[in-house]
């Protein structure tokens, strides 16, 4: 004779069965917090820096956005125009904010579109006057093909004709002091009069290493700071690619290994470095790039200047790296390329070094991203 099943017994049996089924079907779905600061990487603007996260204290004046609100210090609306400092291009002027009237001719960008006057597309080539160097000609825009010999800069790169490398030394004519001599390569400034025999400018410099880091020690001493305007896409440490040993600095999403975060501007800043007072600073590093090859998108640049000039500062001397990078190399194991850039010395002041990456637009951002390794700075005289 079978036991009688009371309603209570049936409920207990059903609950037990569901519990067992639920336990058997549980799938682990880990949430990553790379820097262990309590904020998951997808919500942390600097997932590799435990001192930077949305809940961090953000003191004004150190040029670092510790709390991920897009500005140094707490995002405020100083001029009370209903636009905070994160989006207001001049938070001291209540007449300057996104969407404000912007009359042409006063040399003031009131509507925060990057130019004086309203950004319009007069020639209807899909590029506004903020980026189009000739908005009267639909054949001239940042995406146009450059034509040789017509004395016109079609692609708005500041060069009349496409760069050429006549002497085959790897440096195009707009960067090469003497493009007929392969012994003369990249120079910060060319001699006013030809030398006989010609001498490559930086080859005769006496350089002393004043900073070097292979990035293996992580944040030892905290020599790096980060900024990004896109959540989840920033600079961080990675073991996926490395030029030497096992670690490098990576820009992108450390989880998915891509940088497809839309229009992104991000900077990587080194803390001030003491100099020796030489007239030239040499920045040496290795870069691995899987980014859009377009001349006006995915800009990777290095900036060097006095540390007192601060973070993203247009007065720091800037050189962009893409013209020097060989994108024809597709083998991931061969993509590491050496870079040496020369900048004007800081007259003995501490030097600031900054790497800037700007996707410019939302297109063609499906590559793996950028890696930088083995950074060195030399003071040269």
Outline:
The chain has about 375 residues and is mainly beta. The protein has 1 helix and 11 strands; from the N terminus they run αβββββββββββ.
Shape: globular
Helical region count? 1
Helix and strand pattern: HEEEEEEEEEEE
The appropriate CATH architecture of the domain at 207-380 is Sandwich
User: What's the assembly state of these chains?
Assistant: single chain
Alpha-beta classification: mainly beta
How many β strands by DSSP? 11
Largest sheet: 6 strands, antiparallel
Give the mean pLDDT: 75
Strand content: 15-25%
Integer-rounded radius of gyration: 26 Å
C-alpha termini separation: 103 Å
Low-confidence stretches: 14-30, 187-201, 310-314
In helices, the fraction of residues equals: under 10%
What CATH calls the topology of the domain at 207-380 is Jelly Rolls
Name of the CATH class of the domain at 207-380? Mainly Beta
């Amino acid at each position: 004779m079978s036991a009688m099943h009371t309603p209570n017994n049936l409920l207990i049996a059903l609950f037990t069965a569901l519990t067992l089924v639920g336990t058997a079907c549980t799938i682990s779905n880990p949430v990553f917090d790379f820097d262990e600061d309590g904020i998951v990487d997808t919500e942390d603007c600097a997932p590799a820096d435990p001192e930077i996260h949305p809940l961090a204290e953000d003191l004004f004046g150190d040029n670092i956005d510790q709390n991920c609100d897009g500005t140094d210090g707490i995002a405020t609306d100083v001029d009370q125009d209903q636009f905070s400092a994160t989006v207001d291009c001049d938070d001291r002027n209540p007449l300057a904010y996104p969407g404000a009237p912007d009359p042409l001719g006063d040399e003031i960008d009131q509507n925060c579109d990057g130019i004086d006057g309203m950004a319009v597309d007069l020639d209807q080539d899909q590029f506004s006057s903020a980026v189009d160097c000739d908005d009267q000609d639909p054949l001239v825009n940042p995406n146009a093909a450059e034509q040789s010999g017509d004395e016109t800069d079609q692609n708005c790169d500041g060069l009349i004709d496409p760069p050429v490398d006549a002497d085959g030394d790897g440096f195009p004519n707009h960067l090469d002091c003497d493009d007929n001599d392969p012994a003369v390569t990249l120079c910060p400034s060319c001699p006013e009069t030809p030398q006989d025999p010609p001498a490559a400018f930086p080859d005769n410099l006496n350089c002393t290493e004043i900073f070097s880091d292979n990035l293996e020690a992580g944040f030892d001493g905290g020599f790096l700071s980060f900024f990004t305007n896109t959540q989840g896409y920033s600079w961080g440490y990675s073991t996926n690619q490395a030029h030497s040993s096992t670690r490098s600095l990576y820009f992108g999403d450390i989880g998915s290994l891509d940088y497809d975060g839309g229009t992104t501007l991000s900077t990587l800043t080194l803390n001030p470095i003491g100099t020796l007072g030489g007239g030239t600073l040499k920045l040496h590093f290795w870069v691995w790039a899987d980014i859009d090859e377009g001349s006006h998108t995915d800009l990777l640049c290095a900036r060097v200047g006095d540390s007192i000039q601060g973070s993203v500062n247009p007065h720091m001397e800037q050189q962009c790296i893409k013209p020097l990078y060989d994108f024809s190399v597709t083998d991931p194991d061969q993509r590491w390329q050496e870079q040496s850039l020369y900048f004007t010395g800081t007259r003995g002041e501490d030097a600031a070094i900054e790497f800037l990456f700007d996707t410019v637009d939302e297109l063609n951002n499906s590559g793996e991203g950028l890696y930088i390794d083995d950074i060195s700075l030399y003071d040269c005289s």
